[in-house]
Every structure is written in C-alpha cells, then in structure tokens.
C-alpha cells in the first residue's frame, strides 16, 4: 500500500502543485529557510480555499530553538485558536526544556488547546537528549497522532537506524513520520525499512520571478536568504517521482 505523502510547503502555488501531483496532506509553514514558522491567516485561508487536502499548520513563533518564553508560548496558544476558526485539519508543534527533554506541561497545554484537531509533534524531537525517553513522554501526553523526525540526524536516511528503532518501540501507539532529505533515491528504502505508513517530503524546486527590472545592489533579508528572483515552489517532477514509486 502506498504511504500517505505529507508535503511541506509555504505557498498557495506549491499547495496546488502538491494536490495535482498526488500529495495526500499538507504541512503549511512560512519561513522554510528557518525550518518553518507559523504561516499567516491569509495564507492558511487561501490554501484551504484552493485545495481540498487536509492542512496541518505549523505552530512555531520563531526560528531557532524550541524552548519558549511565556510571551512566545502565549502566541502559540493564540495561533491555535486561529486554526480552530479557520477549521484546519491539524497543527504541528513541539516544546522542549533546557535540558533537552520534552516540556510535558506546555506540550500538554497545547494539545488540550488543539482538540479536536490532529496534532503532530514536529522536529523539535530531533533536538532531544534521549529520543527513546522523548518518545514515551510524548505518548504519555495522549492525543498526539504522530512524531515528525529525521531520527535525530540531518536527514532521515542518515537517521534510518534510529527511525527503525523508534517505529519498533512505538508499537502502533503513535505514528513515526520520517522527514528531512527524503528523495526519489531513498524513499523506498526508508519506507520499507520502517514499514512507514506516512512520509514527510519537501520536493523543493524553484521558478523564475516575473520581475523584469532587477536591482543588483539590494536584497531582502540576510545574505544567506533566498534570492528575490528565484522563487521557491514544490517541484512536480520531484514529488511525482516519489509518489509514483509506490
């Protein structure tokens, strides 16, 4: 059976491509160069209007670590309220303590606020000190459907041994959703080794900006940010190449 393909994306154009190419679900973010932050209400609403795919919305108030102060945590709760109003399928978040363990108290409060939406504990998991303890802590909270993880490595392929062990230990109590660096070249091996029922992919590509005038002396954001005239968009060929292998 083909796994569910969750496509991580940050634009309406990418959402339309993901649906047309056979994607099963969307993880909707802004700021993918920061690993994903909370998208705007306008983006959520427009993607919801333009596609019929279930949408999981990233709840992350900033880039960087996953240890939040009181104001940041309050912002996360407010964004979950907004997701209720917009009637999305689910939300994606993760909160850690300074010692690299799961913040059970705050994660529980976010889960309670999210009900009855689905919940994914995201790749904050990959920054924990002990992934097997973190697995049990997340399961103990309840009402979290899946953990998105690369197996605590830069890519799911590199973390495959840990992903396999997490899947064994989960014993069907929670979905282990592999993600990061998954491509046509490795998706079959990862899915087969884990017995994965879901997979998280980016399938990133670029398209040319429509701008004819281009100022060579100025750019928006930091020097490492994406250039203004190479727009990031889901690649139909990359995504299709993965989906059609099953």
Automatic annotation (TrEMBL):
<dbReference type="InterPro" id="IPR005627">
    <property type="entry name" value="CutC-like"/>
</dbReference>
<dbReference type="InterPro" id="IPR036822">
    <property type="entry name" value="CutC-like_dom_sf"/>
</dbReference>
<dbReference type="GO" id="GO:0005507">
    <property type="term" value="F:copper ion binding"/>
</dbReference>
<comment type="similarity">
    <text>Belongs to the CutC family.</text>
</comment>
<protein>
    <recommendedName>
        <fullName>Copper homeostasis protein cutC homolog</fullName>
    </recommendedName>
</protein>
<dbReference type="Pfam" id="PF03932">
    <property type="entry name" value="CutC"/>
</dbReference>
